[in-house]
Specification:
Strand content of chain A: over 45%
Helix content of chain A: 10-25%
CATH architecture of chain B: Clam
Number of domains of chain B: 1
Number of strands of chain A: 14
Oligomer: heterodimer
Shape of chain B: globular
Shape of chain A: globular
Largest sheet of chain B: 12 strands, antiparallel
Order of helices and strands of chain A: HEEEEEEEHEEEEEEE
Structural class of chain A: mainly beta
């Protein structure tokens, strides 16, 4: 009986410590030291998206603007459809600057959450810790603040399809990219979804279509 | 000294060549206000196309969106973006009725003084009856092909979001051609109207979400 309890307890503990992100994947040897997120690399492209944000049943829209302003620096600005700024963030390497946040939204939890989400979205590269594979997909595990990031690449196209940020034990944020124009000069993700697992926050982004 | 004067003269003439903006005198202001007021009094409906340019200093190109504006007296306004996405906002009483590509929502602006003010200004600038507004410092100028009114908010909170509104009016008929909202950072939104139809039939149903 005692043995059973210990076994069950051990099972329970281990069950909760393994990340579901790597379930069904087999670990392989490392084939690269670094992963690259290709979607916001070009400094001459204005990355403009129509955004829809759903937060705890409330909904609002706007325009998300991302621009690589210097090596290792991105500006991320959110405006209303009329053009007035809601927030304006600057990322320079690991330095985060809040240029502007609309007074009603300027709370630590909101700025932190959005600040981290967009940091995850625009980060260009990360050092690979482990590598996994399953049919048609290569997954790279990288180090992140208090956890890991998992980059999912489709093997055939070598395209980044998904990015999952986790704590040590749980998935926290999932970003899904849809891109079809790999041959163009700047690789653009036409659709992006940012979804949180622990809070009800979802951001849908649609790239502005060219005429 | 003569050199300095010469440089000053060149600089001044260059500045005036670039800006081509001359402040109106008191008489011109009165004539201009009367023209705009007459134009707006005879207006019951407006339907117009617009192109919006969002300028941010760090972008290579302004962000261009476009659509249609419909106004019906006394205070119904619908802004409808049709390119590159579908999005409309109806200003109706104390509410904003939003339709974001099929996702509908209401925003109650009754409680927000700033939103009320902005809403009122948008309605008034479409109508052209905004010169009685005590909440703004207003100045008047003649530019190349238009008359220009600049509104600077007196309220500090509003001034934290909008440094100035600039409205350009057609010299011939006193209707609004262009609206420019300048942020404290000097980034701006510029809206240019075209294909304006005055006093055509506009059904009330246009303003239902």
């Amino acid at each position: 009986m005692r043995f059973l309890i210990i076994s069950l307890f051990t099972l329970f503990i281990c069950g909760s410590c393994s990340l579901k992100t790597t379930e069904g994947l087999r670990q392989t040897t490392l084939t690269k030291k670094e992963v690259i997120n290709p979607y916001f690399l070009n400094s001459t492209t204005d990355y403009i998206y129509k955004a829809k944000v759903g937060v705890y049943g409330r909904y609002f829209g706007g325009i998300l603007i991302i621009k690589k302003v210097a090596e290792d620096s991105h500006r991320v600005v959110f405006t209303t459809e009329f053009g007035s700024k809601i927030f304006d963030f600057l990322y320079e390497g690991d330095t985060f600057t809040k240029n502007f946040v609309l007074e009603d939204l300027d709370r630590k939890i909101i700025v932190n959450t959005l600040g981290k989400d967009f940091k995850l979205l625009i980060s260009e590269k990360a050092e690979v810790l482990e590598q996994f594979a399953s049919e048609g997909v290569t997954v790279y595990k990288t180090k992140a603040d208090n956890g890991y990031n998992f980059y999912f690449y489709e093997v055939a196209s070598e395209r980044l399809d998904k990015l999952i940020k986790t704590s040590k034990h749980k998935e926290k944020v999932t970003i899904v990219f849809e891109s079809s124009n790999a041959s163009e000069e700047a690789i653009v993700a036409e659709k992006i979804t940012i979804n949180h697992s622990n809070i009800k926050l979802k951001i849908d982004l649609d790239y502005f279509k060219k005429d | 000294m003569r050199n300095y004067l010469f440089i000053l003269f060149v600089l001044l003439s260059l500045t005036s060549m670039i800006a081509q903006e001359v402040a109106m005198n008191a008489l011109e202001i009165d004539v201009f206000k009367l023209q705009v007021s007459n134009a707006s009094k005879s207006t019951t409906t407006i339907a117009s196309d617009f192109v919006q340019f969002k300028h941010l200093d760090f972008l290579d190109n302004d962000i261009e969106t476009s659509g249609k504006l419909v106004f019906k007296a006394p205070g119904l306004v619908k802004w409808e973006y049709t390119h590159p996405y579908q999005y409309s906002v109806i200003f109706k009483e104390d509410k904003l009725l939003i339709n974001d590509d099929g996702t509908k929502s209401d925003v109650d602006i009754g409680s927000s003084k700033m939103f009320k003010k902005l809403n009122q200004l948008i309605v008034n600038s479409v109508k052209g009856t905004m010169f009685d507004d005590d909440d703004f410092e207003i100045s008047y100028a003649k530019v190349d092909k238009a008359n220009k009114a600049t509104f600077i908010p007196k309220d500090k909170k509003i001034a934290g979001y909008i440094a100035a509104f600039e409205l350009l009016f057609n010299k011939n008929d006193g209707t609004v051609q262009e609206v420019k909202m300048i942020e404290p950072s000097l980034d701006f939104t510029r809206i240019v109207f075209s294909n304006r139809v005055l006093n055509g039939t506009v059904k009330d149903a246009v303003f239902n979400n």
